Amino acid sequence: MPIRINRVYTRTGDDGGTHLVGGHRVSKDDLRIECYGTVDELNSTIGLSRLHTGSEATAHIAACLARIQNELFNLGSQLATRAEDIRPTQPVISPAHVEQLERDIDRMNADLPALTSFVLPSGGPLTSHLHLCRTVCRRAERLAVSLSHREPLGPEVITYLNRLSDALFVFARHAAHVLHEPEVLWQPDKPKT
Fold first, then answer.
1. Segment 10-36 mean pLDDT
2. d(CA 75, CA 193)
3. C-alpha–C-alpha distance, residues 182 and 175, integer Å
4. Quick one: average pLDDT of 120-125?
């Protein structure tokens, strides 16, 4: 699919509307726009996470995140297109993308200690950013579920976002492990000191 961007501004959105792929015009506060806008936000937070993957110990995480950023562009394209307007050559999320995330999860989870409590979203820069990615991914998933009640979505959209949030959680735990950072566990009813 050739892409050519000659102008950044078009003035066509100045009235609060935008075009979906396929030409349909919708309001910029449409649930579909909110959904793929949140996927774009997720992609940006993953980009921030990649800033902290410069060590040899995190190179495999960096490679996964780079691949996922490209997949999120596929997902954004899919969400920006009504089901009836999807073209056969358009990049979309497939079962293979979900299966790759599952392989990533299994590989990075293999050496992690079993959890005895919930993990607080904290730690070093990479771990903390990956936890932030996970929460943005969960929001994107909730929006996709809401959109699926209103309009048909590709069958892998929600599955991919669900699996990706799981992967980001495991990536955060794995980053703490390979960087020798302690995981901060939730301590319910911890007495105040």
1. 67
2. 47
3. 10
4. 86
